[in-house]
Amino acid sequence: MTGIIESSPAHQNFSRYDTRVIIKFSVILGKDTSCIHKDLVTVLGENTPSIQTVRKWVKAVSEGRDDIKDEPRPGQPVTACGDANISKVLVSLSDDRRKTCKEISTETLMSRTSVFRVLTNKLNKKKKFSKWVPHLLTDEQKESRVNFSRNFFSDISN
């Protein structure tokens, strides 16, 4: 074994940030790029970044880079899930909860995938029995279920 920890399923769920922390720590310890890459292969297996990526981060850390988070990238920002589009989808959905993503996209002039992302990621909705319903229960719904259960059990015990 070259370093850190034996590979196991629990150790293979590292994010890019976690991997960069390991690289930064290894650079501070004075390890060279190939040793760091071998350690990452031992821990992450097939999820290991390429040797070129490890070289890039070793160089950046060695040159004094402290921040290991992703830098903003150029290009058009994703606006499909913005507040204006969320409200468009909500208005469309308030008319009829049985609408499909295609129908909502036609009405709101958004792509079907954007509508789906808004519904599932931003509004936490799921399609159940042909209706878009909240994925999570509200506090009021949870309380109602607890009260119902308590009443039910008290009726049974009496």
TrEMBL record:
It comes from the Eukaryota. InterPro entries: Transposase-MT_Hybrid (IPR052709). This is Histone-lysine N-methyltransferase SETMAR.
